[in-house]
Amino acid sequence: MSELFRKYIKKENYPVHPSNIAFKTNFKNCIYEALKRRGWRETDSEMEWDIMWSEKEWIHEVFDHVHLQPHQRVNHFRNYAELCRKDLMIKNMKRYKKNLEKEGKLEEAAEVDFFPLTYNMPGEYSLFVEEFKRNPNTVWIMKPIGKSQGKGIFLFQKLQQVSQWKSDFRWKPDNPQAEPYIVQRYINNPLLVGGKKFDMRIYVLVTCYSPLTAYLYRTGFARFTHHRYSSNPEDICNSYIHLTNVAVQKTSENYDAQTGGKWDLRLLKLYLMSKYGQDRVSECFYKIHQIFIKSLLAVQKSMINDKHCFELYGYDILIDSNLKPWLLEVNAAPSMTSNTPHDFELKVGLLDDVFTIVDMERVMQGNEEQVGGFDLIYRQTPFPMPANSTYQTYLGTYNQRATTLKKLAKQAAQRMAANEATKVAAK
Ligand SMILES: Nc1ncnc2c1ncn2[C@@H]1O[C@H](COP(=O)(O)OP(=O)(O)OP(=O)(O)O)[C@@H](O)[C@H]1O
C-alpha cells in the first residue's frame, strides 16, 4: 500500500484524492494514458501500489506469493484462463450445457448453442476425424490455444492438410512439446457488409464472480477484412479474406490506415437496422447479451473469486448471414494499443470508466446501474429474481435504444436522399 493511501485509510478520510493513488503498469499504450489522465501517481515499487494493470504472467508468477492489502486491485482473476483459453472456454461451455440438461432445464440448455463445434488437438483427434468423415464438405479452422492476433491459424477442407500440419509441427499424440490447438467448424456464411467479413470486439467488465457482477460497454467496434469475402476453396489459404484480426489486415496492401478497418458498433447497428429491420437486429443483439451472461455463468463456479481482482474482457463475436451470433473467443488482455485517433479515445475512455467502477477514489455507492459508457448487465442477488425478469429488463432497455437508433437511421437516410437530390438539381 502506498504511504499516502495508508494515511487516508487510517484517518478514514474518504474519498481518496487522486494524487494519493499509486498505480503500476508496464504498458505504455492507452492503459498508461488512462491511468495518468486519472491524476494518479506512477510507481515502480514492487508492492507499494494501490492499483496494478499487470501482464497475465504476473498473476501466475507473483500473485500467489504476496499478501495484498484489502484496498489493492489488480486487473486479472487468478484462473482467468478458464474463460480466456480457447480450449478451456469450450470445455466450460460444454459442461454448463450438460449440467442444464441434467437439471432438466432443456430450453435453457438449448440456448447454449453459440459456440461452433470444436475439438481439442491432439487429444480429440479421433473424434474429430469421425465428425470430419460424417460431414466431408465442412470447412474447419485450426487455432493454437494460447496465441493471439491470428498467429498460427489456418483453414482446411481436406484431412491431408492436417496431416501436413502434423508433420510440420512434428506432432504426435504423446508428444508433450506439441503445441495444443483446437479445431473448429468454420462459420463459412458470415454476415457481410459491402462484401466484406467482420467480427465485433465488445468489452465486458467483471468486478466480482461471487456474486457475479458484470457491466457491458456500449461502444465497441467491428473489425473488417480489406478484401471481399469468398467461400471458394481456392481462397481457403488467403488470411486477408478469412481473418479479421487487425494484425493480419495491417499487412494487406488494401489496408486503410485512416479507419484501421474498424467501424463503431453504433454505426454497424444503424446499418444493420436499415438493411434487416429493427426487430431482427434487436433479437440478434439480445442474443449477444445472453452470450455474455451465459459464458460468465458457465465459468462462475470454476473461477477463484478474489476481492482484489477485476477483469476487462474483450469478446469476439461473429454474426452469420442468418443474423445468428457466434462466440469465437474471450480475451483477458484485449489489445489496448490503437490504430487510429478515434480508437485511441475509445480505449482511453473505456479504461477511464473501468477505473471509475473499480472505485479507488471511493466515491461510488455500489448500486449504480450506469457508469460512463457501462451498463450493469448482471448482478446476482442473494434472493434470485423471478425467472425472466432481468432478461426482460435488458430487452426493454435494448428496444428503447433500438427505437432511437432507428429514428437516427431514418434521419440519416433522409439527409442522404436530400443531398443526392441537391446534387441532381445542381447538375
Ligand atoms: N469458427 C470460426 N469461423 C469463422 N471465422 C473464424 C472462426 N474462428 C476464428 N475466425 C476468424 O479468425 C479470427 C481470429 O480468430 P481468434 O479470435 O479465435 O484468434 P486469435 O488469434 O486469438 O485472435 P485475437 O487476437 O482476436 O485474440 C477471428 O477474428 C475471425 O475473423
Structure summary:
30% of the residues are buried.
What report would you give on this structure?
The protein is an alpha+beta fold and 427 residues long. It has a domain at 82-116 and 187-391: 2-Layer Sandwich (D-amino Acid Aminotransferase, Chain A, domain 1), CATH 3.30.470. Helices cover 39% and strands 19% of the residues. The strands form three sheets. Strands 9, 10, 11, 12, 13, 14, 15, 16 and 17 form a nine-stranded antiparallel sheet that branches. A four-stranded parallel sheet has the order 2-1-3-4, with helices on one face. A four-stranded antiparallel sheet has the order 5-8-6-7, with helices on both faces. α2 packs across α13, α5 packs across α12 (278-300) and α11 (265-276) packs across α14 (389-426). The longest helix has 38 residues, at 389-426. It starts with a helix and ends with a helix. Residues 383-387 have low confidence and may be disordered. Bound molecules: adenosine-5'-triphosphate. Keywords: ATP-binding, Ligase, Nucleotide-binding. It holds the Pfam family TTL.
